[in-house]
Design goal:
It contains six helices and four strands, in the order H-H-H-H-H-H-E-E-E-E. By secondary structure, it is α+β, with helices and mostly antiparallel strands. It has two domains: 3-56; 67-219, Roll (Nuclear Transport Factor 2, Chain: A), CATH 3.10.450.240. The chain is elongated, with a radius of gyration of 37 Å.
Length: 220
């Protein structure tokens, strides 16, 4: 066998060896790695499903304060639809501050400072009590300690007028003293804590430029 034939056989053997090695490598890689496009599609579908679940779930800003299936929850949802900037949690924070401000202004007889935040009916009722105290010569000193309990009791929404009403329950603590004309204490003292329960209704027309809620009714 001459040298040219031997060289040809050697080259053929080397080529066959390289082909087999290349096939083994490609085969191992294909069996181990998933095609990138399939992985991306799977991830996209999973992300879309997760987004749909979150997007379609209950609104925590509502269900954290009222029952999910209650009429109050439906009313709150309508308020947020008409006024996307409305937040139940932010309203509750504001209601706490408004309660202290209005209550103490009433106790101190300073109704002028709160007139923009109460309805005409509430103003007349408060004013009647203040005038009665003055006629009897009574002096009141009240110190607000804080709100011990607060909850959203009910919510109503009129779709025709876009008027919303939120009913709040407050439990507050304060010290309270009443003096008569002679300067004698006839009620309370400066050490005993008085616990007071109030149910107030705040109202507002949703979707307007005026963001303020007004106190429209009081009770216990």
């Amino acid at each position: 066998m001459n040298s040219s034939v031997i060289q040809l056989l050697v080259l053929a053997g080397i080529a066959l060896f390289l082909i087999l090695r290349l096939r083994n490598v490609l085969g191992a890689r294909e069996g181990f790695e998933k095609p990138p496009i399939q992985q991306d599609r799977s991830t996209s579908r999973q992300t879309a499903r997760d987004f749909e679940v979150i997007e379609g779930g209950p609104d925590p800003d509502i269900v954290d304060h009222v029952d999910e299936n209650s009429p109050a929850a439906a009313a709150l949802a309508e308020m947020k639809r008409v006024d996307p900037n409305f937040s139940v949690s932010e309203f509750l924070q504001g209601a706490r501050g408004a309660y202290e401000m209005i209550l103490m202004a009433f106790e101190n007889g300073d109704l002028a400072s709160i007139q923009p935040y109460i309805s005409d009916d509430v103003y007349e009722a408060f004013d009647g009590v203040v005038r009665d105290r003055e006629e009897k010569g009574l002096t009141i000193e009240a110190n607000f300690i804080g709100v011990s309990e607060m909850s959203l009791k009910d919510a109503e929404f009129d779709s025709k007028t876009n008027e919303a009403e939120l009913t709040m329950k407050f439990m507050s603590e304060l010290t309270y003293q009443v003096w008569d004309k002679a300067g004698d204490v006839i009620e309370g003292n400066d050490t005993d804590i008085k616990r007071q329960k109030d149910v107030w209704i705040f109202a507002r027309v949703m979707g307007t430029d005026d963001p303020n809620w007004r106190l429209v009714a009081t009770g216990e």
